[in-house]
Design goal:
The complex is a heterodimer of chains A (about 450) and B (about 90). Chain A is an alpha/beta fold. Helix content of chain A is about 35%, strand content about 25%. Chain A has 3 domains: about 200 residues, FAD/NAD(P)-binding domain (3-Layer(bba) Sandwich), CATH 3.50.50; about 140 residues, FAD/NAD(P)-binding domain (3-Layer(bba) Sandwich); about 60 residues, Arc Repressor Mutant, subunit A (Orthogonal Bundle). The N and C termini of chain B lie far apart (about 25 Å). The radius of gyration of chain B is 12 Å and the shape is globular. Classes of the chains: A alpha/beta (about 450), B mainly beta (about 90). Chains A and B meet through strand 8, helix 4 and strand 9 of A and strand 1, helix 1 and strand 5 of B. Strand 9 of chain A pairs antiparallel with strand 1 of chain B.
């Protein structure tokens, strides 16, 4: 077990964590960064040092990774944070041993997870998320081959398809599940998002040029015995069938609120994404003093916005700890705020175009993957008087498995709210508790406190 | 299915069978590359499960790794001689 103290502990080595760490070190804060992965970069720049930059955005990412490495921030990779106490103690495990760290400020840069997308058969082996396949591509060079289908919506669908094709992969087809009428609603936001829209159309063009059919579909199902064998979907009302051995699902990303919920931070409902995010002030500080959130975890905006918000959060911490005065904080934050505004300008277009799909699964569809709780069981619990998500745990065990609600929180809330004729923003999300992931007794026994 | 190019500098064992992997692989991505999509059977219904999120969040890809249950294969680096077994229940 190792013990240490720092002015600032950062959780997560994605764009915002790397930017915050680099900035904090420059301002003189003793800083420690913890990340569960083996290398810096988060999701978007995962394994970037190993694979090399292929476009200007990745080149900027590589520059930041190198600046961070040279900044003097003490960094632990393979370090999973599972507990945080209000007094500033951070509990983390790496290599089978648990450690503690005392910090004056804690910055959570833990990003997002993909929105759960419960369709019939989504738990079959061979069905994964698009993000999962992208991680396999970035870290292991795995490209899709054979009967690979993608179903869903959002920028990542076309981005991944384009990346996979560039890497020599083959995709049988894409089921576009987006709402066509959203295009008209999104149109008025297009001007502000033209750069991102142009980039997205470029990916789309690459995918079409490779001959990948993009099919406007609804009602997708994954079917097979013991593993995915085929997919079934509707096109203009008629039922279609395709053999498949890999189905990748995606419906956007939502902030990870596991740590901030367990810390008791206040959260706000984000209607555009139908999800919760921690409430933060202009410097990323949550309603719990000393707990700061930066990057997509504070509100999804992509890598450029995350870098800017990481810088802003570090400046806020430096001022709060007395390293810089208010005037310097505000002056140095101004360019980052301008950059953040620019990066966020395309969000109304993207969020309108890819508004989350309605959640209305058949009774037999599993919502909680861990405890295998189906939508019908949630509806039955409501009929018996279950009024909220935390009660639902006692009724059905929904959300009580090892993922601790990460894979069912938003969708269980939608199903429960619909059954009660409520809006999901009126349903309190799961109360999460530390440890944020299962621990071994050996890990706990190693803590001498 | 997934496939990928050449380069297999290490081998670990899954359910008694050798699986070729590369230094940078997680156990999960090496299994996927080998066409193996199942790492466990669920405790509730015994249904087969495997990698879903690949980022340590879903706990669907857990397996028995060197005798320890509940280990996320997506977060476990592939190492020479590692013993990975399907987790039942």
């Amino acid at each position: 077990m190792t013990r240490s103290e720092a002015d600032l502990v950062i959780v997560g080595a994605g764009p915002s964590g790397l930017a915050a760490g680099t900035e904090a070190a420059r301002l003189g804060l003793s800083t420690v960064l913890l990340d569960e992965n083996r290398a810096p970069g988060g999701r978007i720049w995962q394994a970037l040092e190993a694979r090399g930059a292929t476009d200007p955005d990745e080149a900027a990412g590589l520059d930041l990774i190198r600046a961070f490495a040279a900044s003097g921030v003490q960094t632990h990779y393979g370090a999973g944070v599972w507990g945080i106490e209000p007094n500033g103690t951070v509990f983390w495990s790496g290599g089978g041993a648990a450690n503690t760290l005392r910090a004056r400020r804690i910055l959570l840069a833990t990003g997002t997870t993909e929105r759960p997308m419960p369709i019939p058969g989504w738990t079959l082996p061979g069905v994964m998320t698009v993000g999962a396949a992208q991680i396999a591509l970035k870290t292991g060079g795995l490209v899709p081959d054979g009967a690979t289908w993608i179903a869903g919506q959002g920028p990542l669908v076309v981005l991944y398809a384009a990346q996979a094709i560039r890497a020599g992969g083959r995709i049988a087809g894409i089921l576009d599940l987006s709402d066509r009428s959203a295009r008209w609603r999104a149109l008025r936001h297009l001007l502000a998002a033209r750069a991102d829209a142009r980039q997205g159309l470029g990916w789309l063009w690459e995918v079409r040029r490779a001959g990948v059919p993009i099919i406007r579909a609804s009602g997708p199902r994954a079917e097979g015995d013991g593993g995915l064998r085929h997919i079934v979907f509707r096109v203009n009302g008629s039922l279609c069938w395709e053999s498949a051995d890999l189905l990748l699902l995606h419906d956007g990303v939502i902030p990870s609120i596991q740590l901030t919920r367990a810390l008791g931070c206040a959260h706000v409902w984000e209607e555009a994404r139908r999800c919760w995010r921690p409430q933060t002030d202009a410097w990323g500080e949550t309603t719990v003093p000393g707990i700061i959130v930066a990057g997509d975890g504070a509100g999804v905006g992509g890598a450029k916005a995350a870098v800017a918000s990481g810088r802003i959060a570090a400046l806020g911490c430096a001022h709060a700890l007395g390293f810089i005065d208010r005037a310097r904080r505000d002056a140095e934050a101004a360019p980052a705020r301008a950059e953040h505004r620019r990066a966020m300008a395309s969000r109304p277009f993207i969020d309108t175009l890819f508004a989350p799909r309605p959640v209305d699964p058949d009774d037999s569809v599993l919502i909680c993957r861990c405890e295998e709780v189906a939508a019908g069981q949630i509806r039955a619990a409501v009929k018996l008087g279950c009024s909220g998500l935390n009660q639902l745990k006692a009724y059905t065990r929904c959300g009580m498995g090892p993922c601790q609600g990460r894979m069912c929180g938003t969708t269980a809330a939608e199903v429960l709210a619909a059954a009660r004729d409520l809006h999901p923003r009126t349903v309190e999300p799961y109360r999460t508790r530390f440890p944020a992931r299962p621990l071994t007794v050996g890990e706990l026994a190693g803590l001498d406190r | 299915m997934f496939r990928r190019g050449a380069g297999t500098p290490l081998t670990f064992v899954f359910d008694g069978r050798p699986v070729a992997a590369r230094e940078a692989d997680s156990v999960a991505s090496a299994l996927l590359a080998a066409g193996i999509f199942v790492t466990r059977e669920t405790p509730v219904s015994g249904a087969p499960r495997g990698p879903w999120c690949m980022m340590g969040a879903c706990f669907d890809c857990v397996a028995v790794v060197d005798g320890a249950r509940g280990v996320r294969t997506c977060m476990t680096p592939a190492r020479e001689g590692l013993r990975v077994d399907t987790q039942r229940g």
